[in-house]
Design a protein that fits this description.
Blueprint lengths: L10 E7 L2 E9 L5 H12 L9 H9 L3 E8 L2 E10 L3 E9 L8 H15 L4 E7 L3 H9 L3 E10 L3 E9 H11 L1
Length: 181
């Protein structure tokens, strides 16, 4: 991300897990957490495909000025994370994973909102992502946030599974929302 901003902001929300309020902190990932994020990717995103998001690959993204690796944590434990790469005109959501007990609590939504705000600050409004064709829950999640179907890519995942490509134009979405209000 070419924004020259070095100030790191932290954000908190309270979610309910099994009817109990839980504070969630959002912050940039640390190098020491790359292994844990890679394991979450293997278990929750890449299940059945093999492991491509290794610790070293995630470390490269944490180090890169053109990527943001964001974590959500509760009581010192990472409960979700997301990785986004930023280009000059577009961004790409590479990964978003939330541990099962924290799904449907707002953690994934907040991870994505943080990254979308970062994109807008960097002057980027279009974000692309891919999701497995059979992962209807993830497709509905992204659609609920304004992402639209673009196309399908056969064999995208290790030559075995089709990807559904989705995208959003954040400026267009914001203008439409402002006009409704």
């Amino acid at each position: 991300m070419s924004s020259g901003c070095t100030r790191i902001l932290y954000s908190y929300i309270v979610v309910y897990v099994m009817n109990m309020p839980v504070a969630i902190q959002f912050r940039p990932a640390r190098f020491a957490e790359a292994g844990q994020l890679a394991t979450m990717s293997r278990d929750f995103v890449e299940s059945g495909l093999g492991w491509s998001w290794t610790s070293s690959r995630i470390t490269r993204h944490i180090r890169s000025k053109d990527s943001m690796v964001l974590v959500a944590q509760s009581h010192g434990q990472i409960v979700g994370f997301a990785i986004m790469r930023f280009g000059d005109e577009e961004a790409h959501l590479d990964l978003l994973a939330v541990k099962p007990p924290y799904r449907r609590t707002g953690v994934g939504r907040r991870l994505l909102e943080w990254l979308e705000e970062s994109a807008l600050v960097a002057g980027v409004s279009i974000i692309h992502l891919e999701v497995r064709r059979d992962n209807k829950g993830a497709q509905r999640f992204y659609q609920s946030l304004g992402y639209r179907y673009v196309r399908q890519l056969r064999g995208y995942y290790r030559g075995r599974e089709t990807a559904v490509c989705m995208a959003i134009d954040l400026w267009e979405t914001r203008v439409a929302a402002d006009q409704q209000n």
